[in-house]
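WARN no homologs supplied; continuing
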Amino acid sequence: MFEKILVANRGEIALRIIRACRELGVATVAVYSDADRDALHVRAADEAVHIGPTQPSLSYLNAERILDVGKHLRCDAVHPGYGFLAENADFARACQTHSMVFIGPSPDAMEKMGSKLAARQNALKAGVPVVPGTMEPVRTPGEVRKLALEFGYPIAIKASAGGGGKGLKIAASEAEVDRAVSLAAKEATAYFADPTLYIERYLPNPKHIEIQVLGDKHGSIVHLGERDCSLQRRHQKLVEETPALISDELRSRIHAAAVKLAASIAYDSAGTIECLVEGDEFFFLEMNTRIQVEHTITEATYGVDLVKAQIRVATGEPLWLSQRDLLARGHAIECRINAESPAAGFTPSPGCISAYREPGGPGIRVDGAAFAGWTIGSDYDSLVAKLIAWGVDRKEARSRMLRALAEYVIVGVETTIPFYGLLLADGIFVRGDYSTATVDSFVRDHGRVISSAYSGMEQATPRDDGPTDESPAALTVEVNDKQYRVTVYGLPAAGGGARRRASKYGRQKSVAYGGSAITAPMHGIIAEIRVKAGDAVADGQVVAVIEAMKMMNEVIAHRAGSVATINVLAGDTIETGSPIITLE
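OK structure emitted
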């Protein structure tokens, strides 16, 4: 077993890995950016090192800095979690050259599945069906329009290096191709430093089913069932459950295909093979060569700690479980608690959490790293926590989830909690006949109810309670980028000072669309201005694109008019409600 592991990530997944290491008796090193000095994963680790500014490119994506930390602190291995460097084969190889084990698949296996184009080619070689589309990159809107004549609209324009819905845009007609290609390329470049795109036939109402696989370095591969991840917004998952409500015959075929594909590339860690399902047909979509956000519900039903399994496999240990040993029990559901406003198109809701209380009770698990006083910025993903409910059957799992959602208290930012309470109570979820299009249609059909759930909520107001006693204070200090924990006598006890008292949720952010100004619906960075002074603008036209919380968000005109002034430049940071364009 390893003696010390560097956790090259942040937030809830970093904390999850640190907890697994502690149970295995392995020391941990956390890394953190400027924004994460007080983060829970930093407090939980045995050692913590500052690696750079808030921007991911200068901190969590700074491979050279992370490797230097690991080498200096004599780490045996690096666990990348998910996102950031988790699927970077070059980083995995660099870990090896620095005498550290990369806890994940081999770089060769990663490369075979890291590019979506390469993954499609390898799936076909293994005899696994893929969504009809191109096997070569496309570079221009003209190429896309030509290929669309072959596949038909709607089409999906996708980043070859993408994942998690980033770099994926839909064109429903020829008129939408330019916009879709532009946005997909921008996201692909921003998040993966690779603008390569390809296209697929877009399946408008499929189920999104993924299969959890686990392999070792000795050729053994098993699956741990499937998850239904169809409930999505902007192609990013919101709610997942296992087992999926599909036929046993289809389930058996998908499991066999996943194991066959993983074996064909000698896969040697935890990974997920994703498929789209229409009727009794399934198509390979992509493979995530890392631990998955929703691994929690597989752990709940199979009783296997997948993070520990990754670590044990990385040491070279042969797989200790056969397929016959792996039996699922009960049903599990996960809701991703995001700092977003479903009432305003799932726009990000960064801000300070002024009050926080997690649910509990039978069958409930929370994987999070939030607390009262924690600020959710716009530089990282909007995920606050993952809420998991297990039950002996789907009915019990659903009722426990609804109970836990009612207990969950987050004040200061808007979250998806009220929305999930409505969605999971709706007949379409109760029946289980939902698809990837369900969330969009649910929002359209229940807009007033959703708005009502988020309206009339008062914003938190500060109250200074002051110090309470003169007990020793436990403090964290940073010296030469490394954190140390010290006890100081003669200072007020930790916990004094500003606290907040408020209603259950923060007030919905309003955007002043009235009058002549087109304003920012969220805090973020101006990625693109699509009009110029003097241009005629139609009601509903996209006039700008804002990058916020790792997503490209289009800004639309609230009325027709002519552009009088443009108040910002591409690259500017803008606050919610600030004017972007003034119309006359």
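The longest strand covers residues 221-233.
OK
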